[in-house]
Amino acid sequence: MAKNNKILVPEARKALDQLKADVMSAQGYKVDTADPGNVKYEIADELGIPLTKGYNGKLTSEQAGKIGGPIGGNMVKEMVRMAQENMAKK
């Protein structure tokens, strides 16, 4: 089954991509700012997971989680940090 990664606010795509690039760069990954989504291939390679462009239906959910978890998890941590910082200013 295909996963739908549709952003509810399409105008936020650029900001989310920038956040991903900033967060993953801070984690020590080489991020292509033109396409920060490519950092998943570096993570997969580091973990020895055979992620390729195109169809990856043979990956287990555990493997996929090991790739996407650090990306999404670190983005959420940064968004929480930013929200706490913003609330502290009020």
Walkthrough of the structure:
This protein is mostly helical and 90 residues long. The chain is built from three helices and no strands. It has helices at 13-26, 39-47, 61-88. The radius of gyration is 15 Å and the shape is globular. The termini are far apart.
How helical, in percent, are the residues? 55-70%
Query: What is the terminal separation in angstroms?
Result: 44 Å
Number of helices: 3
Order of helices and strands: HHH
Query: What ranges have pLDDT less than 50 throughout 5 or more consecutive residues?
Result: none
Biggest sheet character: none
Mean pLDDT: 89
From the alpha carbons, calculate the radius of gyration and give it in angstroms. Answer: 15 Å
- Class from helix and strand fractions: mainly alpha
Q: How many β-strand stretches?
A: 0
> What share of the residues does DSSP label as strand, in percent?
under 5%
Looking at the structure, what is the overall shape?
A: globular
